[in-house]
Amino acid sequence: MDAVEAAQSGHPGMPMGMADVATVLFDSHLKFDPAAPDWPDRDRFVLSAGHGSMLLYGLLHLTGYPDMTLDEIKNFRQLGSRTAGHPEYGHAKGIETTTGPLGQGLANAVGMAMAEQSMAARFGPKVVDHRTYVIAGDGCLMEGISQEAITLAGRQQLSKLIVLWDDNGISIDGKLSLSDATDQLARFASAGWEVRAIDGHDVAEIDAALGWAMANKRPTLIACKTHIGLGAPTKQDTAKAHGAPLGASDIAGARAAYGWEHGPFEIPEAIRADWRGTAARGAAARAEWQGWLGNLSNARQAEFARVVAGKAPKKLAATIRALKRQVSAERPTLATRKASEMALAVINPVMPETIGGSADLTGSNNTLTPGLGIFDVDSRDGRYVYYGIREHAMAAAMNGMALHGGVAPYGGTFMCFTDYARGAMRLSAIMGQRVVYVMTHDSIGLGQDGPTHQPVEHLAMLRATPNINVFRPADAVETAEAWEIALTTRAPSVLALTRQGLPTVRTKHTNLNLTSRGAYVLAEADHKRRAILLATGSEVAIAMEAKALLEAKGLGARVVSMPCWELFAAQDEAYRRRVLPAGAVRVGIEAAVRQGWDRWLMGERGTEKKAAFVGMDGFGASAPAGELYKHFGITAEAVAEKALALM
Ligand SMILES: Cc1ncc(C[n+]2csc(CCOP(=O)(O)OP(=O)(O)O)c2C)c(N)n1
Ligand SMILES: [Mg+2]
Predict the structure, then answer these.
(1) Roughly what angle, to the nearest 10 degrees, separates helices 476-487 and 315-330?
(2) What pLDDT is attached to residue 53?
(3) Secondary element (H or E) of residue 340
(4) pLDDT band, very low/low/confident/very high, at 58 (cuts 50, 70, 90)
(5) Measuring CA to CA, which residue among 481, 376, 373, 464 is closest to residue 425?
(6) 129: nearest Cα among 42, 195, 27, 32
(7) How far is the CA of 424 from the centre of ligand 2 (A)?
(8) Mind giving me the DSSP string for 79-145?
(9) DSSP 156-187
(10) What letter does residue 507 receive in the DSSP assignment?
(11) Beta bridge partners of 535
(12) How close is the Cα of 178 to the center of ligand 1, in Å?
């Protein structure tokens, strides 16, 4: 109440309504140690109803997390504080994930619970044995992502996942009945959950329900009937308690209702000491865990530390180099989705922490490699997840896995359905998590499935999103390089991969990872340089053909392959100048919309008069890929003509 009042901004109602539930959870059940907030075997607590951030901040402060000081609480929602409007991962220890977009935390938690099971299968149920608790609101349960997350968790029987639903019957617009009449208990039960309804203000009931949940063999929903804004005389049980300061008189009234005689931000020593006592339970559990860890061989302990730290194995680089050498020698014509499978086939054996999957497009995304095994109820050592047709929950679960640590998730769908995963992908970016999105069927090149399946604007949308590396490799060599970068970078990566076959353009092996520079000169002009042809992915081969056409006329053309704009933009000026010198005409080629290309065509020493683009300016069509490229004028002839016209 007081922090929201001080900020004159925030959500007091949910923290007040769920304080009883959260107190019992933290006081008697949650396994955590503020002195070692990153302890790998801690329970995970996810505040999916992120608007109730002050509840989490309050708990972290009271239980003694060193970086959640009283000053932070007082600085709620101010620039530079750890106490942002919604909990932000990385701001303070104990914030396990960034929440605020409703439903995401719930789906993150599913991934965390899966990661726990995977790690337990790998390192043993003594070294890895923790639960994932979620507080979710009505909004979380209304969001579509929740249906995907709930049914996935139900199918996987994630028994260590416990959701506490703040069943207060209120959302922003008023009573929940204005917009919803779902029987949530029946809904969860039908998805394979254990469910129970309790009075969320009855300490004994809360405690008993948590004890019951911990013994369940299925994921558990506890519907906690609560009063939003508990105790506020005019605002309790109304939407007015949701997202605005209560005001002096309701705050005074609530103090009276609680019998609380202390001023704002004043915590009596006895109460503080009592809260600190909860930490002792965690410290003891951690000491015991340290013993279990110590029972592993030194090598196993080192491996545990490596995967928890998110470090790729030393062998990865040599593995990628060997694959590149082989591809450059054999020069196959290959779809990059297939090239990605080849890369995974050598990566997965040397990187046992990978967990792959697909949203029901395994055979199309080429995400399953031999020997991975299926992650399932009776085979948690399997490393491949059948996510079902649940792109959004897949992405959010992968965030949860990455946040949990110890595993390296990747998952596939058609690139067009990035839209369905977007809410979670944006959070991968905000949180800087190592999540790899295997997005195949990346253009009209997919052919006859037609415009509903042909992305045209998705590259632009992904490139517009800060902190995502968007890779569009041109062949199997670039694909292998992209994988290496994706698995060694603390940021999400999107691999935009073709359905159609592409020739090998990197025919000369080099140990250097050229993709790591974002763009590079693939083929130098033979004659005096008059044109620079810039292309990504499947259009690099077209650029090479166009180059041949121009060179045949005595006009030199350089081909620049640009597999990752973000990495190129991060290179120093001198390198970018070497790749894109002034003078020559420039043609950009990409089977997608132009948005974003002008930086490379007209910026970076280019000029409008000498710039052209060959690509898409609308949606695609249903026809064989080759015909579509001709129909939309994405051909070597068109590129050469545009270059000539500019000269
Ligand atoms: C995806 C998404 N849509 C909309 C919002 C805006 N929003 C924040 S809280 C809220 C109402 C949530 O209701 P409920 O979960 O019942 O929270 P309560 O009011 O009970 O605290 C809405 C619509 C959001 N944060 N995320
Ligand atoms: Mg509500």
Answers:
(1) 170
(2) 98
(3) helix 336-350
(4) very high
(5) 464
(6) 42
(7) 22
(8) TT-S--SS--TTTSTT--S---STTHHHHHHHHHHHHHHHHHHHH-TTTS---EEEEE-HHHHHSHH
(9) HT-TTEEEEEEE-SEETTEEGGGT----HHHH
(10) -
(11) 561, 589
(12) 14
Among candidate residues 443, 416, 645, the one with its CA nearest the CA of residue 542: 443
Q: Give the Cβ contact number of residue 526 at 10 Å.
A: 15
pLDDT in tens, 59-101: 999 999 999 999 999 999 999 999 999 999 999 999 999 999 9
Q: Is 356 in the pocket of ligand 1 (CB under 6 A)?
A: no
Q: Give me the active site residues, please.
A: 391
The 3-state DSSP class for residue 21 equals helix
Amino acid at 33: D
- Quick check: 367 and 356 in contact, CB under 8 A? yes
**Mean per-residue pLDDT of the chain:** 98
Cα three-residue angle 356-362-364, rounded to 5 degrees: 125
How much distance in Å is there from the Cα of 49 to the middle of ligand 1? 7
Q: Report the amino acid identity of residue 356.
A: G
What DSSP assignment string belongs to 633-645?
T-SHHHHHHHHHH
Q: Is the CB of 178 inside a 6 Å radius of any atom of ligand 1?
A: no
Rg of the chain taking only CA atoms, in angstroms: 27
Q: Give per-residue pLDDT as tens, 307-336.
A: 999 999 999 999 999 999 999 999 999 999
pLDDT at 580 over 90: yes
Length of the chain: 647
Helix axes 336-350, 476-487, angle to 10 degrees: 40
Give pLDDT tens digits for 270-310.
999 999 888 888 999 999 999 999 999 999 999 999 999 99
The finding on whether 191 has its CB within 6 A of some atom of ligand 1 is no
Of 242, 422, 430, the residue with max ligand 1 atoms within 8 A of its CB, to mutate for a pocket test, comes to 242
- Nearest-angstrom CA–CA distance, 64 and 66: 6
Instruction: State whether the beta carbon of 137 lies less than 6 angstroms from ligand 1.
Output: yes
Closest ligand (CA of 173): 1
Structure tokens, 270: 């006895």
Q: In what order do the strands lie in the sheet with 384-386?
A: 384-386, 354-358, 408-414, 436-440, 493-497, 469-471
